[in-house]
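Lab notebook, bench 4. The sequencing result for the construct came back, and we need a structural model before the next group meeting so we can plan mutations. Quick request posted to the team channel:

Model the 3D structure of this chain.
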Amino acid sequence: MRRARGDRGVALVEAVFVLPVVLFIVMGIMEFGLLFAAQSTTNSATRDGVRFGSANFAVSGSNKAAADAIAAAVAKDLSARTNLDTPIQLLIYKADANGNPAGSFTSCSSNCYHYTWSAGAFVYDNASPTWTSPVLACIDPTSGLNTLDSIGAYLEVNHKYITGAFGSSNLIKEHTVSRLEPLPLSQC
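Done. Here's the predicted structure in token form:
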């Protein structure tokens, strides 16, 4: 009887030690789940933008109009993001053999369109270099050589953590590259 009375507070003491650990683990699961969702949304937005661009970039009358349409497609996909995620910039570019723009992702030197996020939409940066060279989207019918250009989209999104236990924010960087779909021979 005396021993049973002495064990009354043990459960409370154990709970005091275990509860913070369990709460920290649950917060970590929530934080990294939201980070994973932001990463997935960002990746999906670049894929959809490039998919749209590979089908429509060469057939549009203007490279700038096609880039604007790609930016709009990416922005539409980003509408699925949470309020914790803020897009920073979008780069639509002619990809080299390695899938990179001319220069780098931060300072594209030619054949690219740079957009920044402002008031819920991507805004074209007038100072960015434009895609001046003609788009190659034809297969040479005589030699059969494939001279198709590749198009890429690079997107940065800033994800803010809820609790701050794992940092204040994380910059998510995603890019996707695809070849342009070939034009019909009558258009080449």
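The chain has a mean pLDDT of 84.
Will bring this to the meeting.
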